[in-house]
Amino acid sequence: MSTDPNEMHARPNIVLIHGAWADGSSWSSVIERLQADGYHVTAPQFPLTALGDDVEKLRHVLDLQDGPTIVVGHSYGGQVITALGTKAPNVVGLVYIAAFGLDEGESLGGLLSQGPPTPALEHQFVDNEGFVWLTEDAFVNHFESGVDLVKAKVMYATQQPLAGSAFNDEMGVPAWKSLPSWYLVAQDDEALPPDAQRMFANRMGATIAEVPSGASGDGLPPGRRCEAHRDGSRSRTHRGRGQLNPTGPVNLKNGS
Prior knowledge:
Elements: H1 5-10, E1 13-17, H2 28-36, E2 41-42, H3 51-63, E3 69-74, H4 76-82, E4 91-97, H5 108-112, E5 125-126, E6 131-133, H6 136-143, H7 149-157, E7 162-163, E8 181-188, H8 194-203, E9 207-214, H9 222-230, E10 237-239
Parallel strand pairs: 1-2, 1-3, 3-4, 4-8, 8-9
Antiparallel strand pairs: 5-6, 6-7, 9-10
C-alpha cells in the first residue's frame, strides 16, 4: 500500500454494484483488499424494485464521490451501470464482472428468452408482489456454485429478490458507448452463460479477461475478483474486436 498522499489522492474512487438476489455485503472480501490498497470504496444497497430505482440510487451515490470514479457491476449490476447512459459525471470507467451489458432497445427478458434457462435461473419463482426469488437448491448449488456450503446457505437466507418488471425494462443509450470498459468472463458461470458474456464484452469493445470460475453472489473467488477490480490491465487480457449484431441471436446456452 502506498503512503504517498499524492498517489493515493490520484486513485479513482470505486463504487461496487451488487447483482440480483444479493446485497452490498457480498463484496466484503473485495472491499477489504481494495481498502488495504488505499482505495475509497462504496458498496451501497440497491432496492432491486425497478431498473429506474436502482439507477437513481447509483446516481445518488455518485454525487457523493469526490473525483474520478470507476463503477463495477456484477451480473444484474451490469444492467445498472449500463443504464447510466451519457449522464455519468465523474465516471471514468466501467467494469463488468460476469455482467449484463445490453445495447439500446434490449431487455433482460428478451435476451434470456433466446435460450434455455441456466441452472441458477431454471427454478426461479415469482411471489404475489411480483418479485422473483431463487429456490434454495438453485441458489446454493448453482448461483453460489463453489462457495462454502455454510456461507452459501447464509446468503440464501438473506437473498434480495428482483422485481419481475426489471426483465422487461428496455435499455436506453448504454454508458459503454462513451466510456472505457473492462469485462471479466467467468468461464463456468451457471447464471449468465460465458458465451453471452463474451458477446457483451466484444460488442462493447472492452478489455477482456477470463477466469476459470463459476457464478456466485459476489462474482468470483476473492483473489481473482480483487485483482481484476484493482487493475484490469494486469490480468491476462485481450481487446474486444468487431461489433456483433445487437439484434442477432445470442447463444445463452451454458458453457462455451
